Amino acid sequence: MGAKADKVMDVCLRAGEIMLTYGAETYRVEETIERMARAAGFTNVHCFSTTTGIFLSFEEEKGNGDLMQMVRVDDRMQDLNKVTEVNQVSREFTAGDITVQEAERRLEEIYAAKIQYPMWLIHLGAGVAGGGFSYLFGGGLFDFIPAFLAAMVASFTLVTIEGYLRVRFASEIAAAFAGSSTAIALVVLGLGTNMDQIIIGSLMPLVPGVPLTNAVRDLLSGDLLAGMSRGVEALLTSLSIASGVALAISIFL
Amino acid sequence: MQLLTEIILTFAAIIGFGIIFSVPRRALLLGGMIGAWTWTALQGSLYLGITNVVATVIASFTAAVIAHFLARRVQLPVTTLSIPGILPLVPGSLAYFTMLSFVESDYINGLEYGVETMLQAGAIAAGLVLALSVFSFRKGIGNRYETGD
Question: What do you get for the CA distance between the two ends of chain A, in Å?
Answer without folding.
Answer: 66
